[in-house]
Every structure is written in structure tokens, then in C-alpha cells.
Design a protein that fits this description.
388 residues; alpha/beta; 11% strand; binds 5,6-dihydroxy-NADP; binds zinc ion
Amino acid sequence: MVNFDYQTPTRLIFGKGVVAEKLASVMAQYGKRVLLTWGGGSIKRSGLYDQVKEILKDKEVFELSGIQPNPKYNPSVLEGVKICKEQHIDVILAVGGGSVIDCTKAIAAGACYDGDTWDLLTFKKPTLAALPIVDIITMAATGTEYDPFGVISRTETNDKIGYCSKHTYPQVSFIDPTYTFTLPVKQTLAGVADCINHIMESYFCGEHIMMNDAFMEGAIKSLVKNVKIVLEQPDNYEVRAEIFYATTLGCNGIYCLGNSPSGWPMHGMEHALSAFYDITHGEGLAIVTPHWMRYILEHTTGELHEQVVERCTSFGKNIFGTSTAEEAIDAIADFYKSIGIPMTLHEVGIDDTRIGEMAKHVAELEGLDKAWVPLHEEDIAAIYRNCL
Ligand code: NZQ
Ligand code: ZN
């Protein structure tokens, strides 16, 4: 078991009606001047925007809207930082999916820094402070409500980078599963695939303990079962709640304390797909997953190969009831097909024209040569080609 040093400062407030019950008292702790950040309008359609504005009626509220999926440095992060500095914002309330919350983390850090926020996001300069963040997360997917990460895209350079700092954990996250009743099927499925992949990126590693295996296998079994129910019953609270609980823990590291790191190879490869083509993150991950598994099964030798066989076999046996590593790969692919998520790059509008460019970008930026199963530029390109 490897050593760990773990702390998550975020307060989670989970359940039906928690915003009405506790948002006012939480916001009372942080001063009068609030930046409300949100996306393209789902919170207006659901009534959450009006509810939040009513709760904040004694505050001075400034707004940054229009934050897009795969949130953009320019304009969203830059505009948010500008508002925070000019209006002397005390706290940011982010309401929406992972993209809104990720963008808010970058804004919160940039607001406390005199130079170019990009310096912080690329770790050229340390993040020494950030404005407090409170969020109401409306999408069960990323786990950003319980982690310090923010993933920001810079369109002109095709960069999609993961940023983090101990200052960018949300202070308080409100998670009411009823908000996910309105999710389009595509986003429900992409969110589940994102979480399954977060867990897999923790499960597929060198050194691991039985307790973590059981924890992660249980979470994926719950997602596999519950996503099928939710496709038939989108407003089934208990099922939506269990999915949200799994996704909230998914990227926080708690599933794998004591395991050795995996190096996040599938995320490294997916981030280039969504940077170059602006596709939905969870769909990109679902496409890459079986092809990465098959590639590492076929291209490893010796002790590393034994580890890969063991991980694939245990994963399949304990989640899908399969017997061999190959059957486990077929099982995860068949599961994704059965729920209707795209399983080829062609289906999400990607052809082979930029594979070389993306593979080079990933090889240079993501450090996958140091992953549990090291991947070099030619390996990454081969996996992309297999995904076509
Ligand atoms: O913009 P609005 O109108 O709100 O609509 C959004 C958006 O179109 C909609 N939506 C969200 N909640 C809804 C809803 N529609 C109806 N009802 C609701 N309750 O869903 C669409 C997608 O939203 P988005 O926030 O982009 O989705 P998600 O939460 O999956 O976030 C994806 C981003 O997070 C990054 C991804 O790379 C991607 O940029 N990630 C962040 C991570 C983290 N911070 O830890 C880890 C992940 O691995 C991931 O990389
Ligand atoms: Zn993810």
C-alpha cells in the first residue's frame, strides 16, 4: 500500500431541497458582493436561476453567463477575472455543470493574481490564493464539486489543460439530484461514462488494495445498473441520487488512496479529442476506453503484462461476471453500446486527418510516457486510429 496525504476541505450538502434550506445561511458567511456564474440557460429553464436570485436578493450580484461546455479561457475566464477585480467580488457562486464550476475555479484564482491567469493554469506561477467558491452542481459527471481541478480550453492553441491548487476546492457544494431530472439523455450517459472512466483510471494501476477494488467495483456496478433505470425513469430520485453520489466521489482520489498512480492515460488522450474537436468529454472517454484496454493488453510484456491481465480480468469478473481479460474489454464496450453512447470517432465527427497532430500534442503535454503503462506518440496515434 502506497503512502498518502489526503485532505478535502469541501463541505458537501446533498439531497432534495438543500438549496432552499441552506443556501442563504451558507452565502451569509462570505460577504455582500457575489459573482454568479452560469452556462447557456439550462438553469433558467429549470427555475433554479430565479430561485437563486431570490435567495441572493439582499446581496450585490454580478453575473457571468454563457460559459460553454469545454469552458474557454477566452472569453469566459478572462471576463470573469475582470469582473472580480473591477467589482471587488467577495465570493463566486457557480451554478451549472462541470464546465461552469471548472471555469469558476480558474476565475477565482485569477482574481487574486496580478499577472496573466494563464501563468497559474499552466503552473508557471504558483496559485497563492483564490476567492471562495460555492457551487450548485446540476450535472452528475465530473466530480468537480469535490475536487480541486478545473479543465480549461484555449481554442487558438488547441490546449485543454487540467489545472489545480489547494485553493480551488469549492468551499461548499450543493448537490440536489432532482436538478439532474432535466438532463438530456446524451449528458446523462456522458456523465456516467466520465465517472466510470475516473474510477477505471484509478483501478488500472500497478499497486492496489482489496478495499479500494471493492469500493470501485461497487461504484461501477451501481452506475451500470442505475443508468439503465434512469433511461426509463428520468425522474427516479433514488436512482439519480445514487448516480450523483458516485460521480461526486469519482475524481477526488478517495476511491484509490493507497493505490499507485495510473497516470490518467485515457483522460490525457480524450482531452486532445475535445480540445481539437470540441466533443463531449464523456463520449470521448467511452470511445477510447476499450481500445486503450485492448492496446495495453496486446502491447505489454513480462510483469507489466501480468498486471494488465490481472486488472482487466478482475474488472470484468467482479463487475460484469466475465472470465478473461478479452471478455472484460468486450463487456465494457457492449455495456456502452447497450445504453446508446457513441463508440467510434466517426460517430462524433472525427476522422483521421488530425490524428498525428493530436498524438504529438498529447505526447508532448500529458506525460503519458510515465503512466503505469507508458504510451509514446506512436502508441497514442495507434489507439486513436483503432477508435475511428
Ligand atoms: O450550459 P447549460 O445551459 O447549463 O447546459 C449544459 C451543457 O450544455 C447542460 N446541463 C448541465 N446541467 C443540466 C444541463 N441541461 C439540463 N439540465 C441540467 N441539470 O449539459 C451540457 C454539458 O454541461 P458541462 O458542464 O459541459 O458538462 P460536464 O459536467 O460533463 O463538464 C464537462 C467539462 O468538465 C471537464 C471536461 O473535460 C469538460 O470540459 N472535466 C472536469 C473535471 C474536474 N474538474 O475534475 C474532470 C473531468 O475528467 C473532466 O475533464
Ligand atoms: Zn473525466
